[in-house]
Design a protein that fits this description.
By secondary structure, the chain is mainly beta. Helices cover about 5% and strands about 25% of the residues. It has 1 helix and 7 strands, in the order E-H-E-E-E-E-E-E. It has a 3-stranded antiparallel β-sheet. The radius of gyration is 16 Å and the shape is globular. It starts with a strand and ends in a 40-residue tail after the last strand.
């Protein structure tokens, strides 16, 4: 899934803090392409459909593109002339993310299955791991 946060800064080149981004999470409103619904337990999550929805080059067996279109709501207390957007991508390819079992994934997406280990979240400050 994706998670989006924002942080207002004063001028170009300012270094935002993790606390600033954490203070301004965007709220998921709708998935315009794949019909994922809002997760009431995690309002900032925008879910990604299975790889079968990606565009691919079947002759080379590679994914060539993936289109996403989400409507997200900015926090009502977010103001500024210069606002940075932070975009986290949690793959969950090899681990199970908290509360995935409680989310009502679209039935046409099928069963994700496979991973059994719990993901090591929250994301590190530097984005790795």
């Amino acid at each position: 899934h994706f998670e989006f946060n924002a942080c207002p800064i004063q001028r170009q080149g300012d270094i935002p803090t993790k606390e600033c981004f954490d203070s301004y999470p965007l709220t998921f409103v709708s998935d315009e392409y794949y019909d994922a619904t809002k997760d009431n337990n995690h309002k900032s999550r925008a879910y990604i459909p299975p790889i079968s929805y990606a565009e691919s080059d079947n002759s080379n067996n590679i994914v060539t593109g993936w289109k996403f279109r989400y409507r997200m709501k900015l926090p009502s207390d977010l103001y500024g002339n210069l606002v940075l957007l932070q975009w986290h991508y949690i793959t969950a390819n090899t681990c199970v993310v908290e509360d995935y079992d409680k989310y009502n994934f679209p039935s046409r997406w099928g069963n994700f299955g496979g991973a059994t280990a719990k993901c090591d979240l929250p994301i590190s400050d530097y984005g790795g791991g």
